Amino acid sequence: MAExxxxxxxxxxxxxxxxxxxxxxxxxxxxxxxxxxxxGTPASGQxxxxxxxxxxxxxxxxxxxxxxxxAPGRVSLITRIEGSxxxxxxxxxxxxxxxxxxxxxxxxxDPFGGDVVDGIVWGRGATDMLHITATMAVATRRLxxxxxxxxxxxxxxxxxxxxxxxxxxxKFLVDEHGDAVKTDYVITESGGVPIPAPDGVKLPVTVAEKxxxxxxxxxxxxxxxxxxxxxxxxxxxxxxxxxxxIAAYQPKxxxxxxxxxxxxxxxxxxxxxxxxxDPDRVWETLRTLEPLGFARFAHACTHTTFSPxxxxxxxxxxxxxxxxxxxxxxIRALPDVSALDVDAMLREALGDxxxxxxxxxxxxxxxxxxxxxxxxxxxxxxxTRALVPGSTIIPRMTSGGTDARxxxxxxxxxxxxxxxxxxxxxxxxxxxxxxNDERIDTESLGLSAAMWEALVRDFLG
Length: 461
Hints:
Elements: H1 18-33, H2 48-58, E1 65-71, E2 74-81, E3 91-96, E4 116-117, E5 120-122, H3 130-145, E6 154-159, H4 170-176, E7 185-188, E8 202-209, E9 211-212, E10 215-220, E11 224-225, H5 235-248, H6 257-264, H7 270-276, H8 282-288, H9 292-302, E12 305-313, E13 320-321, E14 324-333, H10 339-350, E15 357-360, E16 368-369, H11 375-387, E17 392-398, H12 404-408, E18 414-416, H13 429-432, E19 439-441, H14 442-460
Parallel strand pairs: 3-6, 3-7, 7-18, 8-17
Antiparallel strand pairs: 1-2, 2-6, 4-5, 5-19, 8-16, 9-14, 10-14, 10-15, 11-13, 12-14
Helix pairs in contact: 1-3, 1-14, 3-14, 8-9, 11-14
């Protein structure tokens, strides 16, 4: 979530039914406590625990369930409310059930305790994205028990493995069980954290994301005795130069329509708006721009980024000059930047040391985008204006990756959204994703659940 470098007055909203808030809070706490921690290994995650919790929550609603197991314990759960009109659209509400690891030493509270203190739920996954998964479930159950019979079909999906790329979750379902998730529209994470602006609150809708293009760079040298380093070909020394060059590399900025529209809605000073949307000036502007969170987000939305994050030693022991070092680089490419473009940028970054570097098993995915001008987005706008008077939805791109990309690859319009209160300032959200002290206020849980229910009724009829 990006924050403009200023603070405006808060706006009001209509508080939803308190029972929605209580139900969503209880379900979220259960899912946090289930600790479906995904560290990227096949045996981690164990999302079956949250699949069981969701199925138990839906019990008595009349809904039936489909379970899809990609590997032991890696379970995704689907339920649906069938529409009466085959020509009407299908909407898929998708929330993931796994979370990233947490180091309890950096937290004020137990990251898997699900504590509620003064209307705030604490725990890993509270913002990424168990609060959305839980509120989507609460709305789906409420719709089912009310006897709602829509024209279009509603699908609820609690999906596994989002935090490690979706191999055992969304990708598995789209590739292997396409009929189960066949839909006309998708909503998943993230968005809806209100940004106060001079002409009313802005509610960002994620309409695009960058392509994940990770590369492993192999730097080779010549082994030798560590006691005689003079004029040796030390792979670690060369690798340090490689890391420095990649970290310092700045490809030319590109201003996408999503970024231009996003900035134009924030009500910034005209000169700052012009600088942030000028490819020749944005880099210099960001070097000193505050707050830092907004500067980082703005940089990510205007540049393909290169982050050397992991170095693996390929030598044998501490007194042997290393002959092999592996460097893992996390590259996030703007939409329309191809894998070939990424490799060309890498070579440009490396300069005259490129001949010393081998790119091992390059892989990647393109960035994706969805227009905001769709019937679903129009419905989102109507519903959110009713819940948050004076609000406007605006498009934004996320610098991270979500499961939405697997549906966009198939041509399905996909968005990231929820609906938050202003209890937690929008400037704090970027620090909580995969960070310490993740938390969400219960008012936001009630708002999101009310919004999902109203949106389904409005859009699917």
